[in-house]
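INFO batch 0412 | record 1 of 1 | parsing
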Amino acid sequence: MADGDEFYVRYYVGHKGKFGHEFLEFEFRPDGRLRYANDSNYKNEKMIRKECYVTQAVMRELRKTIEDSEILKEDDNHWPAPDRVGRQELEVVCGKEHISFTTSKIGSLADVQASKDPEGLRVFYYLVQDLKCFVFSLMWPPLPDQASVNGADPRGCRDPPAGPARPPPGPGPGSRPCFCRERRGGGGANKPCPAGRERRAQAVQRRPARQRAAAGCRRVRARSRRAPARAL
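INFO prediction complete | emitting tokens
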């Protein structure tokens, strides 16, 4: 970028409490360098640092987001000052314009409405949410879909590896149990088909030996309770 078209963004939010200095900070430099840091001492967590380079298309989209928000027209003179709850900083260099805002942490829109400049602080509040989502989507891309798990790139960059075709679903040991109507002695009854019986038998064999033994003991006790008493 040229000197007159320089673009830079930095955001910081943090506080100091019983776990020390905890903060989140990221910045976009004119050359497309993105730096991210997240430090939380809760449960002895370590600082997370990430760094990458983004394309100029990403930088243009980021610049468009900031310009559309009209944050460059706002002023932080009537915004809440930083306090023990926390501190927020937003610095933007967009061409010949340079802004630097400082305010306290905003918990919800109720804090925005209670301020002396709710309109300007609302613009800041929504822009910060958009910037966080923007950065998180770059640092932690979404999980791959089922196609990429099977070997295909979700963007279609390469074909999945060739392999045996998956058999169509149908009755068999690995399919869901099905019930068919079998005629026995002129009457009708819903009875599991042989494939269903085979599937259940294989499921029993896959159980641990302890579970099979416990199931057998339960069947023996059930039969003994049902058996009639023998005459002496």
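INFO post-check: The first strand starts at residue 7 and ends at 17.
INFO record closed
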